[in-house]
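User: Hello! I'm new to structural biology and keep hearing that structure can be predicted from sequence alone. Could you demonstrate with Methyltransferase? Please show me the input and the output so I can see what each looks like.

Assistant: Of course. The first part below is the input, the amino acid sequence of Methyltransferase. The second part is the output, the predicted structure written as tokens.
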Amino acid sequence: MAVDTPDTSVNPGPIMGLILGSWQSRILLAAVEYDLFTELAEGPATTAELAERLGLVERGTNDLLAGLVHLGLLETSGGKFTNAPVSDAFLVKGRPAYLGGYLHFCEQELNPAWNGLADSLRTGKPQNQAAVAGNPYDSLYADAEATDGFLDSMDLLSAPIAQALSRIDWSGYTSFVDVGGARGNFAHEVVKHNPHLKGAVFDLPPLQSAFERHMDRLGDTGLTFHGGDFFKDDLPKADVLVFGHVLHNWGVEDRLTLLKRAYDALEPGGAVFVYDPMAGGEQPSMHGALAGLTMLVWSRGGHEYSADALHGWLREAGFEPETVEVDGLHEDVLVIGRKRA
């Protein structure tokens, strides 16, 4: 009986690299959990010094630090370690561009859900229990410190979107509401560049205190906060309702519900602004595929979608849709649905 032999012309390296890449992310997350980069911001340190300060075993700490050097997150010289520039900018707690809040969100919320990807592919159901119960954000917003850290990171990552959209033509409108606008970073940027606008944020009631603290830091622009559940409570009346990174969290029926509720809330001649990656279709980018799978495991029916699909939902809700080119809007697409006057 003939025995098949492996094809030695094909290297398994790409497959093994994927597994190793997963482990590499664990190195980063462990280092952030122990505030290693924040500790090193105080000055260079040896393995033994860091292990003692952080309460870690020296043997494991040595390998952790070596791994972080290979990942380009640390530098070493003379037996001491220092932060690499990228770590000094984004991984030191207390600094303006700190991304630890988002990494904590990944570790506490997304990664456990991703562990159930195989089940979600079979059942179509999320692995995030908060989403199963109703809203995927409920467990996150139950912890005020985690909420602030997450929103710090989200504001940093979405700042280019806010800057790009604040510079489009808002002259035909006098008011807008950012639906799902969290603590108002996007709305603040829009009003700052368009002071004729009266702006507001509509989001879950637990975010009101975060909104008020953030507005105190940024300076008063007259923004107001409306607490509510956009599936249960009426949306505020305005010329424009903005749905940014909202619709992809929900299934098609929920999206249609939100767009129809938006149509009812808008003044005649008003518009709904929707921005999302819109990376759906038969051949999404890798970014789109990962975003779509994240929605599968974490949200209630959410997935990425195409601009053409959104045009169809907008028409069904009564809008006249248009995809708008926006300078500086790189990984997102803006679609505007207009309500006839």
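User: So the tokens describe the shape?

Assistant: Right, they're a compact way of writing down the 3D structure. Reading them back into a model, for example: Residues 4 and 10 are 15 Å apart (CA to CA).
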